[in-house]
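seq as requested:
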Amino acid sequence: MKNNLLSLLIFICCAVATQLLSQRVSAQTATAAATGMTVEQLKAVKAIKIANLDKDTYFKSAGFILDRYEERPAYVFNYTDGITRKIYLYKIFTAADTKELGLLAIYKNEKSGEIKPFVIPGASADRKAWDAYIDDLKYVGEKEPGLMSTLTFVLSREMAGLLSGGGAKTEEGGAKKKEEYNFCFAPDAPVTMADGSSKSISNVNEGDVVLGYNAQTKTLTPTHITRVDKHQSVGAQGNFEMAGIWLAPINELTADNRNALTAPTLLEATANHPILTATGRKPFGDIKAGEVVYHYDAMTNGVTIYKVVRTEKTIRSVKAVYNLVTESGAYLVGETVVLDK
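struct tokens:
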């Protein structure tokens, strides 16, 4: 009887904390739309598989953007049963217009490897979405010992932080700037066209054919631009900072005769734009010296490997930035393979 009452109390606390947190977050989002998450969207987000919960803090999948909530690391709980439990929180946005929909809370049992996702709708979500979330709390959450107590603690703790004025980088109303969820290049970033010529990204238009990259076959292939995004800053405080990496051919770096080395090539982008490395997709700002990327080889009309010889977090600031969306999901900037956001 006592256990049943305790479970009921935890369930109620979790539901109340969730509702209050979602209302508070939605109230802080300046760009919130009148309608929120649907039950279909909730199911789609639940189905997203995250390869590495500790490293994958920001990514796009199935038409959504998942961004680690306030850049928090996982909440870690070590109970007396010897099992480590973790809770990860992500904000959920639509990829098309970065409309905020709610939160994704992921529970992980480190011993069994069991992972349970809970999609927490925003306050303006459809009633059916809220019903689906409450069902998950009841019929999924209560079956895993320790899940409800950890989830309740995390949501209550975040709610307390919001009420006390805590939070990460904010603009008016407390919401993150929409530009923080975009990935972009400076206006003069050179895009390699399908014929091998180069064009500034600010002059590339929807429907243009550029040189894309097929990650499965590891070959270059023409691809159409399906969308061009442009973001313009307002005032000095809104400028976009460009990070930089310098690249050099690996065959030159390993040559005995170093007198004829060409100068390293500079590539610039916002820190969160993804680039293809030998170890997979990485945000531009996370690239380290010594890592390998893929570069266009005009002689073979294919790609060759270049090594990063230097990095810098801020090269310059620009007032406008551009992003391309392609059919292939990858294209060339500065003759280096970069990925769609």
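The radius of gyration is 23 Å.
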